[in-house]
UniProtKB/TrEMBL annotation:
GO terms for biological process: dGTP catabolic process. GO terms for molecular function: dGTPase activity. Keywords: Hydrolase. The keyword Hydrolase applies. This is Deoxyguanosinetriphosphate triphosphohydrolase-like protein. Residues 75-219 form the HD domain. It comes from Martelella mediterranea. Belongs to the dGTPase family. Type 2 subfamily. It comes from the Bacteria.
Amino acid sequence: MTIDTKALGFGDVARSAYACDPWASRGRLHREQGSLTRSDFQRDRDRIIHTTAFRRLKHKTQVFIAQDGDHYRTRLTHTIEVAQVARALARALRLDEDLAEGVALVHDFGHTPFGHTGEDALHEKMRDFGGFDHNAQSLRIVTKLERRYAEYDGINLTWETLEGLVKHNGPLLCKDSSGKTKPVPQPILDYSARHDLWLDTYASLEAQVAAIADDIAYNTHDIDDGLRSGFLTFEMLEEVPFLKDLMREVSGRYPGLEEARFTNEIMRRQITAMVEDVIGVAQANLADIRPESADAVRHAGRTIACFSDGMAEVDRQIKTLLFKRIYRHPDIMAIREGAGQIVSDLFDVYLSDPQLMGSHPWIDGLEKLEEGQLARHVADYLAGMTDTYAYNTHRRLFDHTPELR
């Protein structure tokens, strides 16, 4: 059976001049033959979904640990929501939707168990060995740690997807407010030395919409989860005028609405307002810059897909509310302390006895490594753990394990 490639309609996609072209990709580190039925960016997205790292996200904390209930977001459900928003933004701006979705799907691969708490603990343990950064760890996973293909380690993603992964929040080789160049995690520098990711430029517009989609998604669903948990109340939401106005609108249109429906009506309006704000700002910036290629976006000198000043203030107020009422709540802080202890304890025991990492793919020869190299392997192993696996492993190796409730 032969395939009529002309009938597939690849050329019918109405991408803008400033969108990334999957048929003109800068390619992969390891050259491969193209697909008859999928673009390179479609293949990237599909490879990401089929990884072990993607499946592990279902048992990694977003804000609330899995023991708190089945209805709270995990890293996986958060990632899917980010991908949906990114794809909507990409379609509105006539970008490559597959690339935007792929960057969104891979952006949290490097997160440790127990969310940012685990990352903070692991970074502290790795401080003398280059530190730990979840973004750099995501790159290590897709370029080295996933072992699925016969000819190479990693999943051999395109330059554009990897660029979006490491630079979706902006250039890495840039100066801070004091004029000093910000440090770049060594794993990113090492890979870029082999496959130059242009660390001094902005990322594609597809990566930019994935980044802002992350903000939109977690601002919204952390409020939803916060209300479900009881850490937030509707009265607390009134601290943010934008949310207060949304609640007034919903109450006026649907008086006496049950709580679950009331919450959803607020959240859907919040997402719509933020998405439409980003589209409007991006369109205005594009009209001002008039980029004629994806590279022109990279060299524009500023982020194109972002909030307006007014919505940026709303974003700041929502984050302030979430930090005050949830992230820094005494109950959450107590859980974070216990989770950090679990990660720290596991790091110490694996560093002292690497053979305890019995399922680590590079277990042979670890005893011959220098301390820094061994520490990096331990960090790889720990970062790959799910919350459940880390908790149960700690219980097996230690006499006392903190209760995470």
